[in-house]
Backbone:
């Protein structure tokens, strides 16, 4: 029997829950050609949400096309342009041959080279000569609008893991190029999304940054507790296993309603459950998961400086006033300025989430493991 929970992949069809308001917002933005910036910590469901909106819109509107570009593995401008062109061609032509015939209309200053994989119809990549590309990147950035107009379609460009633009040699220059091309586009629409809230919020909301006021900014939240409880019960029932709403609530609660970890934890509990879930199975599942991930967590912790580690110990002990003299002393955190730097570093490593006045471990499982190892009371 298949595990009725999904994690590590985009959630779709009956494993995609809630997000009704967000779907509506995003769809309305797309239909209205409004660019959107979607931000949340990693694994809260951005990719799943955009994917869901795309599949709903594709079913309803024959003139819409979506192009997905993931910056996860892209480190420089050249790779970006190549991935961008490949994604745009794939979304707007049935076959690459169509494109070769038409391509000159859209790109005149650059000569694309096609490399083929196992399935030459769908599996291909475009590359360009770097020297030409350096001069004519703008042509590539304008491709979506040109193609949209020529083919009378509405192309929506979705760029995932947008925070990775920080790895480019000159991120600011790249952002300026993107912004100056895309702000002129009337038909094609852009959805940029990623994690590292402060960094992305800065890109989009800081007046001195190129993407300032580029579009509508949405901060995605976690999924509400009651949605999780209903979902967990439903998925157990479907596979002829039983769970009470108290225990389903316990699963979501222990993972703080974190989308990825609720799914992972529910899958682990489900595997240990023969017919009826019990509290001791949930305890066991948590122990198993912590054990399973402990090497990874240990490695992550090994990469921290002593002061960063001390900061996490204070956080694990529910300290709230990190800059008080007492905390600085008892956890050996150095100066107040030091605490600021520690916070930024831990946020950049995506270990903690700083939002408003709250500081939290991003990953609830890491939180449990950390407390067991370093606080011992747990
Ligand atoms: N709407 C949803 N319904 C159910 N599970 C979800 C939903 N959104 C996200 N998840 C869970 O969270 C995981 C991470 O989602 P993903 O969309 O990849 O997040 P992000 O793009 O923000 O990193 C998914 O694999 C799934 O387990
Ligand atoms: Mg994602």
Residues:
């Amino acid at each position: 029997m298949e595990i009725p929970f999904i994690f590590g992949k985009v959630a779709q069809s009956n494993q995609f829950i809630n997000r009704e308001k967000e779907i509506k917002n995003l769809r309305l933005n797309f239909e209205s050609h409004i660019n959107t910036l979607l931000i949340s910590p990693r694994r809260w469901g951005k990719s799943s949400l955009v994917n869901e909106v795309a599949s709903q819109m594709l079913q309803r509107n024959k003139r819409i096309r979506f192009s997905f570009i993931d910056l996860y593995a892209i480190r420089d401008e050249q790779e970006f342009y190549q991935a961008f062109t490949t994604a745009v061609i794939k979304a707007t032509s049935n076959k690459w041959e169509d494109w070769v015939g038409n391509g000159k209309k859209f790109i005149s200053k650059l000569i694309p080279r096609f490399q083929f994989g196992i399935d030459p119809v769908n599996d291909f990549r475009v590359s360009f000569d770097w020297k030409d590309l350096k001069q004519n990147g703008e042509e590539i950035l304008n491709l979506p609008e040109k193609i949209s107009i020529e083919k009378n379609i509405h192309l929506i460009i979705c760029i995932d893991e947008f925070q990775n633009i920080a790895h480019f040699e000159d991120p600011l220059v790249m952002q300026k190029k993107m912004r100056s091309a895309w702000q002129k586009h009337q038909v094609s629409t852009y959805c940029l999304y990623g994690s590292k809230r402060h960094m992305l919020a800065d890109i989009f909301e800081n007046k001195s940054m190129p993407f300032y006021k580029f579009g509508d900014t949405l901060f995605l939240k976690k999924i509400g507790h009651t949605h999780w409880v209903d979902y967990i019960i439903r998925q157990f029932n479907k596979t002829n296993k039983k769970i009470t709403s108290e225990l389903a609530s316990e699963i979501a609660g222990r993972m703080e309603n974190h989308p990825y970890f609720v799914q992972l934890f529910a899958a682990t509990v489900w595997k240990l459950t023969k017919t009826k879930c019990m509290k001791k199975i949930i305890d066991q599942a948590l122990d198993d998961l912590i054990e399973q991930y402990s090497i990874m967590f240990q490695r992550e912790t090994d990469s921290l400086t002593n002061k960063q580690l001390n900061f996490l110990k204070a956080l694990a002990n529910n300290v709230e006033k990190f800059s008080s003299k007492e905390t600085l002393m008892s956890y050996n955190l150095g100066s107040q300025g030091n605490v600021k730097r520690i916070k930024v570093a831990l946020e950049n490593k995506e270990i903690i989430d700083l939002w408003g006045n709250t500081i939290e471990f991003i990953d609830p499982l890491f939180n449990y493991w950390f407390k067991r190892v370093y606080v011992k009371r747990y």
Observations:
- Residues 16 and 186 are 32 Å apart (CA to CA).
- The radius of gyration is 23 Å.
